[in-house]
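Write out the 3D structure for:
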Amino acid sequence: MHSPRVLAASGLSPGRLANTMGFYRATVLPRLLDFSEGLAGFAAARQRTVECATGHVLEIGSGVGSSLALYSREITSLTTVDPNPVLNARVRRRLRHLAFPVDVREGRAERLPVKDAAFDCVVSTFTLGCTEQLELAAAEIYRVLKPGGRFYFVEIGLSSDPRMARWQWRLRGLQSLLAAGCKLDRPLEGALAGAGLHLKRLDALWLDGLPRVLACAYEGFAVRDP
């Protein structure tokens, strides 16, 4: 949250800041997401994550719908949740040729607008780093999964190489600005464990098509106990 002193120093009033962020989320962010959709590294990691999902599936942070065509035709249903109404409208325009029903909902990961224990799988691709309260989001994932359900994810993160991590820290402000507040240093493992989800796989990888300093990612899955 920006304090009045910071806003005054920057020349932004609360109203002007809200208008600026509204323009960014409505106009700039969709174009950035369209661009990232075409990058080989993002596309490959997203496909590996999404194609694992089965049964009734919930996708958190569906963006412009980059994952829709990657789901198996055999899934029972897909529910998407994203806080951005502009992006949700884009998703609805991409549903025509899908072989499974899709329910597009507006909401945040920290308070998912769905029932308890409703899904066999939850999917997140490059989303949890943008949540304001990661622990609440993890608790919500646990809540909406059926016993034995799986959470599949791929997220940008800090490199285990100290030299690379230092460069990531230096550029974290720019990265956060371009990616609508996403952060590299979110403690995903701890948040999942704290929510009661058991991490079964976690692989580090480098995304093709990006500068090395922006390309470190982690993919895997966690399970809610039966």
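The longest strand covers residues 145-156.
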